[in-house]
Amino acid sequence: MSTLYFMSFRSLARILCVVTGMAAAMSLFAQTTVDTTIHVQKEEDFYTIQTVPIPEGVLLEVGGMTFLPDDALAVSTRRGEVWIITNPYMKNGARPQYRLFAQGMHEVLGLNYINGDIYAVQRSELTRLRDLDGDGEADEYETVYSWPLAANYHEFSYGPVLDRDGNMILTLNLAWVGDHGESLSKWHGWMIKITPDGKMKPFAAGMRSPAAFALNDKGDIFYAENQGDWVGSGSITHVAEGDFVGNPASLVWSHLPGSTVTLKKEDIPDTGEPKYDVAKRVPGLKPPSVWFPHTILGISTAGLINYDTKGKMGPFEGQLFVGDQGQSKIMRVYLEKVKGVYQGVVFPFREGFSSGILRLNWGSDGSMFVGMTSRGWGSTGRAKYGLQRMVWNGKTAFEMKTVQAKPDGFEIEFTQPVDEQSARDAASYYVSSFTYKYHHNYGSPVINQGSCPIKAITVSPDRLKVRLVVDSLRLGYIHEIKAEGVLSAERNTLLHNFGYYTLNQLPDGEKLAITAENRVTETAPQHAHTMKPETPKAAVKASKTNDPKHVTLQPADWTKGADRTIVIGTKPGLKFDVEAITVKAGSRIKLLFNNNDDMLHNLVVTKPGAADNVGEAATKLGLNGEKLGFVPSMADVLFHTRLLGPTEKEAIYFTAPAQPGDYQYVCTYPGHYVVMRGVLRVTK
């Protein structure tokens, strides 16, 4: 009932006071004064983002962050510096103060204050920094442990994080060679540990680009992985000693003394099956604990932090927060252990940060400090770097707090009591499942999509939990759980109405008895019209070979060939190597796009001024994005290539627009459109 409708009843009640008497009027008024207005929540209503000012001339491309005992924040940068920031909270309106503590190091992507010293992870070593004379600057740069490099730009190194036994955990990236990752240097692609006496112990293998890792509240290690070769989408994975987590390039070192992994490269099949299925045949291969659907919940997982007693960010204690570098946002993860295996659900949490998120730290007041950089990697947050602080205002949003697996479905716990009518309505939900290919290719489209019909629904007496009996559950699959129609008792919409649960094990226990009261009728429309993974039209669009916007064979009537052949490649920093081209209106163009980068790219020519609209629309394609090449079906798209993997190339043919103007070309892979673009200038 709208507010306007409610007001009409108030007027009617006043009339009845005169015509039929006070008793009848007040009875009707009492029945119609219930506020049924639906209240839409927004992230900024609960979590504010504050920018920590950075002095001019300080290029704070954050690689690592750690707090010191005096509540100053130490920040390392990709330019090899360490800055000490006092008053990062900007208390009493005072600006923070910056002091250069150390410099001259090599891309410091990790920092930690441990037992009275600052430890920095450079590309090739773990370094202890000490201020011996108390002047606020490091005097001693001591190598604790070093490892070889092959001079490949992708050999990043991260850490250190302390494990529960006092060892320092580090991870070493694979190099990138052509179109795939390689371990060109010893132990790259591994998680290693440095003991308190400085000895190295190989711990686990199979990492590709493990940009972040942290301990949960049980002391177990989880690491965040990025899409790439052998990695269909981003994820977080529980890592135990001796695990192999997926990329076989690291196995070239498994024969060395000290290796905890016995697998060899040739033991890993390249069949394109789901990773979970392959793991059943390959002992030691561990699938992710939680998958992050690509482009929906990030494209470059990073910044992993446990919500422990230091934090103050709503009623989500014991969960993990995960930042994303490419989409400049933070997700929330609830984990549970079923039959000894970790699994769980990932939800959106907060977006809108100014640059690509790489590091997260708790401040002493429970706020979350967010360190960012985007140079060379790109992000939806357009700043090249930044430091921001997220603060919870104490108000609790209506959210799905947790999702737990049941023998016959899922149980959703909410942060506030639900409106029982909407919670019992099957049309309020939609559940589906899908997974990714495990293969040597870069990334993967969504595969094996299927719906999971809801058979029964119950609401707990306190209205904080809803149990869904779900058909067609599949082990190893990501289950999309949407609850768009559920309202709180106070008529609030969910702040985020979806999550993705990775089901590695089904728990034992009693299944819910389906009764006449809780049974869902077969005809209940469970939001299928808005939630289907792929519409028939989209499928047809993806399979067309005669798309006039994607012509890959020279047209038959071009008897004299193209008037102009243009070759465009890529260069580091998410850029085309040709950023401006001038052609004549109506001329016949052959455009060869060569993706010589280590990421997926396309090239899309748009109408003047439409590049942002097209890029934003591509980001919203959701699960179907990769199948559609991240090219949205819209009039603003004029011509495009397909989505190309590393080292791939494609030629397209088109006739230049008849109307002179500046037409933009852009890569619409999510996050890239912000910086990766050029101008096709059409003249008379």
Give structural notes.
The chain is mainly beta. The chain folds into four domains: 3-37; 44-392, TolB, C-terminal domain (Neuraminidase); 400-533, Immunoglobulin-like, CATH 2.60.40.1220; 540-683, Cupredoxins -  blue copper proteins (Immunoglobulin-like, Sandwich). Helices cover 8% and strands 36% of the residues. It has seven helices and 44 strands. It has an eight-stranded antiparallel beta sheet with strand order 20-21-22-23-34-33-29-30, with no helix packed on it. A hairpin with a 3-residue loop joins strand 36 (570-571) and strand 37. Mean pLDDT is 91; it is low at 1-22, 24-32 and 528-544.
Entry summary:
The protein is mainly beta and 684 residues long.
